[in-house]
From TrEMBL:
<dbReference type="GO" id="GO:0005576">
    <property type="term" value="C:extracellular region"/>
</dbReference>
<feature type="domain" description="NodB homology">
    <location>
        <begin position="73"/>
        <end position="319"/>
    </location>
</feature>
<protein>
    <recommendedName>
        <fullName>NodB homology domain-containing protein</fullName>
    </recommendedName>
</protein>
<dbReference type="InterPro" id="IPR051398">
    <property type="entry name" value="Polysacch_Deacetylase"/>
</dbReference>
<dbReference type="InterPro" id="IPR002509">
    <property type="entry name" value="NODB_dom"/>
</dbReference>
<dbReference type="GO" id="GO:0005975">
    <property type="term" value="P:carbohydrate metabolic process"/>
</dbReference>
<dbReference type="GO" id="GO:0016810">
    <property type="term" value="F:hydrolase activity, acting on carbon-nitrogen (but not peptide) bonds"/>
</dbReference>
<dbReference type="InterPro" id="IPR011330">
    <property type="entry name" value="Glyco_hydro/deAcase_b/a-brl"/>
</dbReference>
<keyword id="KW-0732">Signal</keyword>
<dbReference type="Pfam" id="PF01522">
    <property type="entry name" value="Polysacc_deac_1"/>
</dbReference>
C-alpha cells in the first residue's frame, strides 16, 4: 500500500483525539528560518501549560496505538536531531515539571565539532554581514546565483532555500567540502558551540533518566526518499545499531529526517525492531494511526497562551 493511501485511509476512519509534539531546539537564536527554536522562557511557559494535560511517554503511546485504545487528549513530546541544548536546557526543565520526552538522535554528529549542514548554510547565507553578490559552484553540482539575476529580486534567504534543496540530494560525504567552499566564498568561518550536538556522556545521562527515551534519527540525517534502498538501509540501521551499542538497550522509536519517507523506507523500518516511526506530517492521532507514519505537530516559539491555543486546536482537530 502506498504511503499516501495509508494516510488518507486511516484518517477518514477515525476522529483525531491525541497529538505528538515535535521540538528541535530550546535556545535563543539570531536567525531561524525554519522556526525550529523555542526560547527557554517560552519553553517553560509551554511546560506549565502541558502540566494541565495528560502527557505520556512513547511507550504508553505505543501501547495505545498497538491495541487501538482511546488516545483522547493524550500528548507526547519528541525532540529531533540531538542538539546539545536538549541536554543543557530542555532536560532540567522537563525534570522540573516531571514531563516525559523522547530524543531522536542523529548518531554521526554525537560529540562532533561540526554543525548540521542546514545550520552551517543558515550561518553563511543569513548571518554574513556582506554576502558576495555572485556565487558559482561547479562541483559536486553546477549552480549559479546572482542578486537581481534576470531582473528577479533575489535575497539571501532565496539562496539559502535553493542550497538546502541541493544539499538534500547529496550524500553526506559531499556536504563538508561544499560547506568549506561556501565558507571561503562568504568569508564566514565562525564556529558556534551552541549549534553542536550532545556528546556521548550527555546522551547517556539522558538515557539514564526514566523520564526520557532515546530514539533513532539515522546516521547523517539524509532526506531518505532521495536515495537508494541500500543507502537508506545503511543510514537507518547504522543509526539504530550505534545507539543500541551506546545505551546497551533496544531502540524502539524512529523519526524520519526532514520527515521524509517512501515505500522503501517503510519496508526497511518494518524489518527492524522499531515499533513506532514518526513523520513531520502535521496531523493528530487516531485509534487507527499507522505505526510507521505517526504524525507530529511542530511547536514554534510561542508563549504559554499562544501555545495552549494551538494545542487545544490540535486536540479538537482544528488546525
Amino acid at each position: 500500500m502506498k504511503i499516501r493511501s495509508l494516510f488518507s485511509s486511516f484518517r477518514n476512519k477515525s476522529t483525531l483525539t491525541g497529538v505528538v509534539l515535535m521540538y528541535h531546539r530550546i535556545a535563543d537564536v539570531s536567525s531561524d528560518i525554519w522556526e525550529l527554536a523555542v526560547s527557554p522562557a517560552n519553553f517553560e511557559e509551554q511546560l506549565q501549560v502541558l502540566k494541565r494535560y495528560n502527557v505520556i511517554s512513547l511507550d504508553k503511546l505505543n501501547d495505545l496505538i498497538t491495541h487501538q485504545k482511546n488516545i483522547k487528549n493524550n500528548v507526547s513530546i519528541t525532540f529531533d536531531d540531538g542538539y546539545r541544548d536538549n541536554y543543557t536546557t530542555a532536560k532540567p526543565q522537563l525534570e522540573k515539571y516531571n514531563i516525559p520526552a523522547t530524543f531522536f538522535i542523529t548518531t554521526g554528529f554525537i560529540g562532533s565539532e561540526i554543525e548540521f549542514w542546514w545550520d552551517a548554510l543558515q550561518r553563511i547565507c543569513l548571518e554574513t554581514a556582506n554576502l558576495p553578490s555572485n556565487l558559482e559552484i561547479n562541483t559536486p553540482v553546477k549552480f549559479s546565483w546572482h542578486i537581481g539575476f534576470e531582473d528577479h529580486e533575489t535575497k539571501p534567504s532565496d539562496l539559502y532555500l535553493q542550497l538546502c534543496e541541493i544539499f538534500k540530494k547529496l550524500p553526506a560525504q559531499e556536504h563538508q567540502a561544499l560547506i568549506r567552499y561556501l565558507e571561503k566564498w562568504a568569508s564566514n568561518h565562525i564556529k558556534r558551540a551552541a549549534y553542536l550536538q550532545m556528546n556521548e556522556e550527555e546522551l547517556l545521562a539522558l538515557n539514564a533518566n526514566r523520564l526520557f527515551t532515546i530514539g533513532a534519527h539515522t546516521k547523517t540525517h539524509p532526506f531518505l526518499p532521495n536515495f537508494s534502498y541500500k543507502y537508506q538501509e545503511e543510514e537507518i540501521n547504522n543509526g539504530i545499531n550505534t545507539l543500541e551499542q551506546l545505551t546497551k538497550g533496544k531502540i524502539k522509536y524512529f523519526a524520519y529526517p526532514h520527515g521524509g519517507c517512501n515505500d522503501d523506507t517503510i519496508k526497511i523500518i518494518d524489518k527492524t525492531a522499531i515499533q513506532l516511526a514518526f513523520t513531520t506530517n502535521p496531523d493528530g492521532l487516531t485509534n487507527s494511526t499507522y505505526k510507521f507514519t505517526v504524525p507530529r505537530f511542530q511547536v514554534k516559539n510561542w508563549n504559554g497562551k499562544e501555545f495552549e491555543q494551538h494545542l487545544m486546536n490540535w486536540l479538537s482537530n482544528k488546525k
